[in-house]
Specification:
With 290 residues, this protein is an all-alpha fold. The protein has 14 helices and no strands. It holds the Pfam family BPD_transp_1.
Length: 290
Amino acid sequence: MTTSTAATPAVRKPIAWRRVALHAGCLAALLVMLYPLAWLLATSVKPADEVIASLNLLPGSLEWSNYTTALEGVNEVSVWQLLGNSLFIAGGAVIGNVLSCSLAAYAFARLRFRFRGPLFAFMIATIMLPHHAVLIPQYIIFNQLGMVNTYWPLILPKFLATEAFFVFLIVQFMRGLPRELEEAARIDGAGPFRSFFSVIMPLTRPALITTAIFTFIWTWNDFFTQLIYLFSPEKFTLTLALRQFVDASSQSAFGPMFAMSVIALLPIVLFFLAFQRFLVEGMANSGIKG
């Protein structure tokens, strides 16, 4: 008994040190990942001469006027209007992707029709198609329809299930749902649309919220597509305003530009924090795991 008791701490000691080393490594990685965010927050309150000249993380003096200048906006357009434009585009994209991709996924996952397999494979193949390869044909179409310099080119494609990645994500989630639920709804007289909206869609909430989070982040951070279709300053988003902010002044106002970057980052952080638990649940139960 004595030998066994004395040997127990010696066996557990390497395990404890291993855990400490693992936690220390994770903490170091976390600090490395959070450093750009800390640098952005610190630079947003630095004076103009310290942004480029100083390598210190903490500012020598706080310049809160950077945020005052950033709130004034660019090209006589306030930051609140820019924020509203960004929220309108991102919100429309989220609604379009969630609705259209879930409907397309329901057809591929639960309905039986001819050429379902080849069509699904063709849709998956479009994931490998670069966005820039279809940008010019899309621009020509929207230009002929008179939709250039409007928000339609940025929102309308989302209602057509053009995001194959999200369709695949939801398809894999729906395939794990029991078919008995739909059969019971069919016995009660429900058709495909009623079964989708009343039975399947509530059960796929984690996958739908995952789709909403990624759509919101990708649309909010999109710069190239918005630059192609939007010309009028009053229709600019915060992403476009960040570029115009430097060009609009006679000197490079880096402090206010970083202050506006912090303002543009806040909605993404709040949106992610509000739905992060659903994101983890959706990724764990979707086809990402194979």
